[in-house]
Amino acid sequence: MKIFKRILVLLILLIGIIVYLNYPKLNMISGYASKYMASSVLVGERSAASVISNDLDMPLVKLATTEFNTQEAEATANVYGLMNRKAIDRQGLGTVLVNDDYQQDEIYLQPNRNNTPIAQPYPFGHLAPKDTLFSDVDYNKLQKAIAVAFGNNETQKTRTLLVLYKGHLLVEKYADGFSKDTPILGWSMTKSLLATCFGILEYKGKLETKWLAPVAEWKNDERKEITLNHLLRMQSGLEWNEDYATISDATKMLFLDSDMTLAQRDKKAVAKPTKIWNYSSGTTNLLSGILRQQFRTQQEYLDFPYTSFIDKIGAHSMLLEADLKGNYVGSSYGWASTRDWARIGQLYLNNGSWNGEQLFSEEWVNYITTPTQFSDGKYGAHFWLNSNGFYPDVPRDLYSMNGFQGQYVFVIPSKDLVVVRTGLAENPVFDVNRFLSSLIATIP
User: Fold this and answer.
1) Does residue 440 register a pLDDT over 60?
2) Residue among 164, 285, 293, 300 nearest 216 (CA)
3) What is the rounded CA–CA span in Å between residue 109 and residue 67?
4) Distance in angstroms (rounded) separating the CA atoms of residues 326 and 356
5) DSSP-derived secondary structure for 143-190
6) Quick check: 408 and 401 in contact, CB under 8 A?
7) What gap in Å lies between CA 285 and CA 271, rounded to an integer?
8) From CA 434, how far away is CA 392, in angstroms rounded?
């Protein structure tokens, strides 16, 4: 009996130590689960049961008990009864995690949207795509390429796939439970949307990427040399830890902060600008705050991404979620249907031109596709590159919007292709090189 009691005491102590060491992580776990659930149901139009059995069935996150309250339009989560978190709906701004700064009766602004249908065939409008057969496309090989993307479903987990060729819908396919209208969370693909706002402002003569970043807190120290260009290229030299498996700068920002534009702003410099390349979601959200400074009012800031390009190209399913302080979470929280993600790719393939209107300059496309020093040729300005042949069997002019768990918008100018793939597994589990090379083989 004494031995048993000693073992029991040791077990209790061991469990206590484990809980103590991991307790802060529970906040992130329940925060992720509740936020993802709320957005997936209210924005992504998914069922709570499907989200739990598929999306939240991942290491650590599956420890959370997550529920969606239809009547209150909110999601809650906890881990073994600990660290309860709640995410609520703010129509027009997506969902947001509640914390001590949340005021239930607070009045917030929403973006104005123009959802008038465009009377042209998709992708340039909302009419049915043209039924086009291309003599230079090997359709048998095309079906085999699509099969590559949807093969090994237990591991690759492809959900949606769409290919535009020469501005026409070549093929699209959707897994069960998804359709051409289902909004998909782009995660870090949202970074490219935020950057596009800067390209449009530069085209309008409102700013230049070579300008010093307008951050008052940096004016009296070494950070005063940081430019918009350095931020867009992730080469500011600022300290940042982008680790999603631990309590890091990125996870604290996304699941704790009320104002996500401040996390990177308050970091010290660890190198001079251009001397290192360090991928940072905090940098993108800092840029979102800088974008907000370009407008006289909060309403103008909220409207700008939609009025300047999103609604102009007919991407009416697209929604940018905001933090508690009303800043767009440009690092991570952009939603759109697969067809509307493809519109963004086509806009870039068209060098900023859409239905006769120039939204940003061709020079902007050259800028975002120019490799950033120390990125090993993989990164430009908030877009990923293939300039050094990271995908060896794919054209080097490929550039892309990439997001967590394998959300991709690939633009391949030399092949006149835009390819969208969404799912729950990323490269190399979803073998991007194998899929894209098999797809490209269908076109001379």
Assistant:
1) yes
2) 293
3) 28
4) 33
5) HHHHHHHHSSHHHH-EEEEEEEETTEEEEEEE-TT--TT-EEE-TTHH
6) yes
7) 20
8) 10
Are residues 69 and 60 in contact, defined by beta-carbon separation less than 8 angstroms?
no
Cα 54–chain centre separation: 19
d(CA 251, CA 40): 19
For residue 312, the tally of other CB atoms under 10 A from its CB is 16
In the 8-state DSSP scheme, what is residue 85? E
Q: Which helix (H) or strand (E) covers residue 29, if one does?
A: helix 2-42
DSSP structure string for 364-420: HHHHHTSPPTTTTTSBSSSSEE-TT-SSTTS-TT-EEEEETTTEEEEEEGGGTEEEE
Taking CA atoms, 30 is separated from 246, 256, 379, in Å, by: 14, 11, 32
Over the range 201-215, which residues count as b (16 or more CB within 10 Å of their CB) and which as e?
bbbeeeeebeeebeb
- The DSSP H or E segment spanning 74 is strand 74-79
Q: Which two tokens stand for residue 55?
A: 């999306």
* Nearest alpha-carbon partner for 263 in 193, 329, 334, 219: 329
Residue, of 17 and 239, whose pLDDT is higher:
239
Confidence of residue 444 (pLDDT cuts 50, 70, 90): confident
Question: What does pTM read for this prediction?
Answer: 0.95
